[in-house]
Amino acid sequence: MEITPLIWAITIAVTIGFFVYEFFAHVRTPHEPTIGESARWSIFYISLALLFGVGIGVFSGWTFGGEYFAGYLTEKALSIDNLFVFLIVMTGFAVPKKYQQKVLMIGIVIALILRGIFIAVGATLIENFSWIFYIFGALLLFLAYRQAFSNHDSNPADGKFMTFVRRHLPVSNEYNGDKLTVVKNGKRFVTPMLLTIIAIGFVDLVFAVDSIPAIYGLTDEAYIVFTANAFALMGLRQLYFLIGGLLERLVYLAQGLAVILAFIGVKLVFHALHVNELPFVNGGEPVLWAPEIPIWFSLLFIAATIAVATVASLVKTRRDPASVSSPTDTTPIIDKKEHS
Fold it and tell me: Any alpha helices (H) in the chain, and if so which ranges?
């Protein structure tokens, strides 16, 4: 797949343009989006992502098109899981609904920047060190195990990192609109809004560790990795308000993602064996019996896993409403500090 610097420049410029438009058209004036607004823009961004994938298939071949769709599905599923953690963070900080758009927008931009850095690093490692596939595969298998047994009960906003931040920054106890800092009695304080954004940025960094090795298990084309991530993040803000209530009903999402991560981890290990250069593995020669899992199978497996996890979750929560997961502690973080 030949991607010229001009195509890269245009792609990055258009991506930035979308986020700039989003900020000035929807986020700059604080408000809570309606269901209709969220639905229209969610459909627009998903349709745009699908059309882009068709374009890759038509102009670059359906092998690359399949890699894009598999990557997009995986990144979208991981992003929805990311939304659940965003919900916990904003509940913990008691962010008013009309300001949540700004938090999400900044968080998504931070996520895209961090993933862009990880993508560049990953591409360099893959190009120069074929053994990195062993590392990525082992990492994904570990993350799959952790994902399978996570319950999302822990609140990143109340973890050690945020405790350290609050200890070293003067914090105001109340929101001042959507301002990040405020001056009181001649002293500048950071508001809970800034703490929320810092927490969201930290969550983005953690999720990038899952996200980038996963998609590099489906394609080694950095352009596909970037565009799949960009499209997965576009419209995520609207999706948050559209399926906010549904998030709590996706009780098997973590297990579904664990299956996907484990599958991609195994796929990466097989690929590492197939291109092996490590001298202590098969004498430094490729392990020819290791199968290369075709992209069409990966695409079907990922789509089927997401569908099964979603349907099973909805059936489970419909039959047993008590099983619906939700943030276990909704006491605002600032209030906790005040009462401690």
Answer: 5-22, 35-60, 62-92, 97-128, 132-148, 160-168, 192-216, 222-233, 236-242, 244-247, 253-274, 295-319, 333-339
d(CA 147, CA 134): 20
Q: Contact, 53 vs 65, CB < 8 A?
A: yes
Whole-Å CA distances, 202 to 103, 168, 296? 13, 16, 34
d(CA 221, CA 320): 44
Query: Apex CA 306: angle with CA 251 and CA 135, to 5°?
Result: 100
| pTM metric for this prediction | 0.77
Q: How far is CA 9 from each of CA 139, 224, 275, rounded to the nearest angstrom?
A: 32, 14, 32
C-alpha to C-alpha distances, 212 to 216, 225, 226, 258, nearest whole angstrom: 6, 8, 9, 15
pLDDT tier at 322, thresholds 50, 70, 90: low
Condensed to tens digits (0 to 9), the pLDDT of residues 49-75 reads: 999 999 999 999 999 999 999 999 988
Task: Kindly state the DSSP code that residue 235 receives in the 8-state scheme.
Answer: T
Residue 284 to residue 73: CA distance in whole angstroms: 35
pLDDT digits (tens, 9 = 90+) for 119-158: 888 888 877 777 788 888 888 888 888 877 766 555 665 6
- DSSP H or E run through 131: none
DSSP line for 9-75 = HHHHHHHHHHHHHHIIIIISS--PPPHHHHHHHHHHHHHHHHHHHHHHHHHH-HHHHHHHHHHHHHH
Nearest CA-CA partner of 216 in 265, 145, 287? 265
3-state DSSP assignment of residue 156? helix
Q: What's at 338, amino acid-wise?
A: E
Q: Cα–Cα distance between 305 and 199 in angstroms, integer?
A: 30
